[in-house]
Amino acid sequence: MSKKIGLLFALLILAVHSRAQVQAIEQQFTVAQDGSGDFKTIQEAVNAVRDHSQIRATIRVKNGTYREKVVIPAWKKNITLIGESAERTIITHNDYSGKDFPQRDFTGNAKFSTYTSYTLLVQANDCTLQNLTIENTAGRVGQAVALATEGDRIEVYNCRILGNQDTLYTSKNGRNFYKDCFINGTTDFIFGEATAVFEHCTIQSLTNSYITAASTTREQDFGYVFFNCRLIANDEATKVFLGRPWRPFAKTVFIDTEMGAHIAKEGWDPWKGDNMFPEKEKTAFYAEYNSTGPGAGREGRVAWSKQLTAGEREKYTLENIFTGWLPGKKSRLEPTGGRDTSFSVRGSYRHEIAHHPNIRIADAALPSAVQVIRNLEYRVSAAGKPLALDIYKPKKKAKAPCPAVLMIHGGGWRSGDRTHNATLARKLAANGYICITADYSLSTQALYPAAVYDIKAALRWIRTQSRVYGIDTTRVAVLGFSAGGELAAFIGATNGNVKFEGNTTEKGPSSDVQAVIDIDGILAFIHPESGEGNDSKSISAATYWFGYPKNERPDLWNDASPLTHVSAKTPPYLFVNSSVDRMHAGREDFIQKLNAFGQYSEVKTFADAPHTFMFFDPWFEPTLATISGFLKKVFATPAVVSGK
């Protein structure tokens, strides 16, 4: 029975691990009608996207005419649908209001309505459409929607949205952004409740009627806003109104728009004859600013419309219209709040012993001359979590204050804890140093730069407590392994940079360090040697820390690179590296910058050593000796404490 339970437990662990691996894959699919892609239909690709994914899935659609009625449901968020070309990647269907259903739907309806006549329906949040033609070819048979949006933060670029009546339905109170699009239709062919911006779009009227029919709610500050658009028409359309209010409180504004001669001199229509909502013009907000062309004349416009002043125009910015969202800036991953225990010293040992059968975990015994002071809270994190540190110091009181070494653990900015540096801290403390191992905000709790703020706060704390623990504040080093090595390098490179101090209201001593020991931590995230974020099919640890993939926010990835910030204030560096080349990405460039400022550096590389070499013999003692020699050189360290 115990063997069966053990087997079941192992299978459960494997399933959880497999699920975690699956969740780490960034999905990318190709749709091609000739079978050369992953799927032949767009809907199949949409269905294959993980439910409720925080990571963007990209579906690339090859040229072709896809006769589909496509739905991106609410649980398939973060999808980007990209056509090969707007003119030749076509999604088409021909349903319309009043058309018979092939069979009754779940409500018992036998006919299509306006709301079910769509060709493409986007119900999910944070979806992007690009380089597509989306059309409803039902003809002039009444309401026939080509594209319907129900989600929030919908972006549409370089798309052709074609139809007749009710071509584009921006349903529900979401936010839509259309740029460089071509939209045509007959009556009310841009309609709905959403807050939507149209930038550099061409709007074509096919007959005398109305372009927009907004149903903005009373609570919304903005409805439809057109920036730098062109209003054109075919020969049939000679008198077209900019809009009419589908519901009370409708809002539509045209700014810097070129209007053809087909635009009626009145500009707007009140939609008389609506018995349910009469006199909607009394609550509608219809306005223009700086429009040009033969249809843009102010004389003759209905009295209840408005010409914006220059001051009023200033509030029409994307930041104001889309409060809390800026199109083009992708949604940031949110911390999960859980604890990631995937990285540990023993776990690394189990992994590496298969490749290095002679390794042993370094002796963690506490030297008799060293004492430990544990669980000292040094600050509360941005996530409201108390952050603690441990101090390892010589028992014997020194004649003068001792140098200090703040130690930062690794674990991909997501896992690990301060105990991982305990062995090295004990041995260095026996050599006359006061070693501090500190926890910091991991990406499961708070994103970059929260960890930087924490570590700099720990350095300030060390200096405030220097008399209590006998610390020489003029000789403070920072040491880190892997992700901790990158952070240590970053802390040193940003000496004196107030941008990374975090809460600047915290008055106190400096967070500067006088030396840095970087153990297999990279120096640049965007670099030919870096492996972070280079695999398009996986999510790197850095992506979770920054909240964005490299291609979406390269500015953030560069900002977090120590190489970006080297200056005359940057202190001496020791680089201790494994044989894994990508773990010292940017090192040579970093050293060149140090040389330019006349700053000292050393490099120690262990041939054939794995990334986690510092935890294991035969590399631990040489690593300790290298670090001790470097610190002695830059700090003129006192003699080794007796009774080691």
TrEMBL record:
<dbReference type="Pfam" id="PF01095">
    <property type="entry name" value="Pectinesterase"/>
</dbReference>
<dbReference type="InterPro" id="IPR012334">
    <property type="entry name" value="Pectin_lyas_fold"/>
</dbReference>
<keyword id="KW-0732">Signal</keyword>
<feature type="domain" description="Pectinesterase catalytic">
    <location>
        <begin position="29"/>
        <end position="321"/>
    </location>
</feature>
<feature type="active site">
    <location>
        <position position="188"/>
    </location>
</feature>
<comment type="pathway">
    <text>Glycan metabolism; pectin degradation; 2-dehydro-3-deoxy-D-gluconate from pectin: step 1/5.</text>
</comment>
<dbReference type="InterPro" id="IPR011050">
    <property type="entry name" value="Pectin_lyase_fold/virulence"/>
</dbReference>
<feature type="signal peptide">
    <location>
        <begin position="1"/>
        <end position="20"/>
    </location>
</feature>
<dbReference type="InterPro" id="IPR049492">
    <property type="entry name" value="BD-FAE-like_dom"/>
</dbReference>
<dbReference type="Pfam" id="PF20434">
    <property type="entry name" value="BD-FAE"/>
</dbReference>
<dbReference type="InterPro" id="IPR029058">
    <property type="entry name" value="AB_hydrolase_fold"/>
</dbReference>
<dbReference type="InterPro" id="IPR033131">
    <property type="entry name" value="Pectinesterase_Asp_AS"/>
</dbReference>
<keyword id="KW-0063">Aspartyl esterase</keyword>
<comment type="similarity">
    <text>Belongs to the pectinesterase family.</text>
</comment>
<dbReference type="InterPro" id="IPR000070">
    <property type="entry name" value="Pectinesterase_cat"/>
</dbReference>
<dbReference type="InterPro" id="IPR018040">
    <property type="entry name" value="Pectinesterase_Tyr_AS"/>
</dbReference>
<keyword id="KW-0378">Hydrolase</keyword>
<protein>
    <recommendedName>
        <fullName>Pectinesterase</fullName>
        <ecNumber>3.1.1.11</ecNumber>
    </recommendedName>
</protein>
<feature type="domain" description="BD-FAE-like">
    <location>
        <begin position="389"/>
        <end position="582"/>
    </location>
</feature>
